[in-house]
Design brief:
By secondary structure, the chain is of the alpha+beta class. The chain has 11 helices and 19 strands. The protein has a 6-stranded antiparallel sheet, with no helix packed on it. A 5-stranded mixed sheet has the order 8-7-13-9-11, with helices on one face. It has a two-stranded antiparallel ribbon with strand order 1-2. The structure holds FE2/S2 (inorganic) cluster.
Length: about 450
Amino acid sequence: MDFEWFESKYPGWYAEYGAWWEAYNRLKHPGANKPIAFEEVGYQYPHRCWTCMVPCLVRQDMVVDKVDGQWRTYCSETCAWTDTTAFRPEYEGRATPSMGRLTGKREWETCYHGQDLADIVKDLGYVRDDGKTLVPQPHLDLDDPKKPWTLDDIRGNTFISPNVSLNEMSDEEREAHVADYRSRSNITPSMLRPVPPGAETLPPTAREGTAGARRRRGHHQVRRDPAEPPPGRLVFVGDKHRIRFEPVGIEIEADEDETVLDATFRQGVSLMHGCKEGQCSSCKSFPLDGDQQMERYSTFAPADYESEEGYVLLCRTHAYGDLSVELINYDEEMLLSGIPPRQARATVAAVQSLSHDITRLVLDVHPADELPYRTGQYVDIEVPGTDQWRSFSMAGLPAEGPGGKLEFIIKRYPGGRLSGMLNGALRPGDPLTVKARTAPA
Ligand code: FES
């Protein structure tokens, strides 16, 4: 409802900000994830204006200058002029001894650089009378005592001041960082990472179900098969059904616990898709017959009138009986050129820092395992010690046949599940599990 209101008042709002608020809702559960600013959601914490103290959100306007031996950021030319020209000991040839100066640790971020987020929040007094529950909460559901976030839920996240980081960079790194900052939006929806099957990905404010749905789905069971090496393989335990795609006549099998789109990946059928999270409509199709239901999906994909007509998003759809589906967007040649996701064992061969936030990661694929390459392929890497995966595009072609190397250029994010481990936690020789996936070209 909120999303619809914003979109109707401010057309285009959802394309710009929807992904952020979808992620905000998904990440609201205490203990299940870090605060959103420490998760990989395509958000880059903004620099702050040295003069007016407001974040430099109009990124292309940000000015960077060195003043009193310190690199500083400004939201605009006017604020830059104030500090670099007006607030100097001399102005237009006159001494200005009474003029103020903007000095010291002006940003609160710099005062708390390198400290634990929980200690910062406590120090700032943003804790309720019980001494542990946070005053700000990422949701309004405060009746259940298990839902409010406490200091324990945010402990373990180190806060980094953008200004301190900027001053620690080499000239080349700073130049590249500033160019990147100016070129980006505050939120980059395309950088939102796929979440594991079975995880709730969209908020309660999004719609659930389709016109044709006959039952609600409470939860999805996805679990590991302990007998199946190597680790990381997902095993589905629901009933299985036949899915037939028209007009091409291709049939696959889908488990109730996986989405129809995931079932196609598993069986090497390349359907059109994009976000895999019910937001982009690329996988929109029309069910002709059978029992199916959608998980939660974005309010704007598909549009209301399409939902009413019965269109579904295959990345959100579970089959609860044999299904016949008419494909809307497809390329007949591509359909059967997909490769079922192949899993392989790998070892970290190199972790090389290329700049303050870019790392080159090289993996050696186990000599007995093979990841056949197709155009459009990307790789899921299992985050060590978790059952989570992160997707990365390869920086070069992998070798044909078993073994070989995989190379990635990865941007590190504070708190990133995998990218956050590239600061020393992941070392040469560490074992990893990888999975090759193919998106339609
Ligand atoms: S792939 Fe984007 S909505 Fe299904």
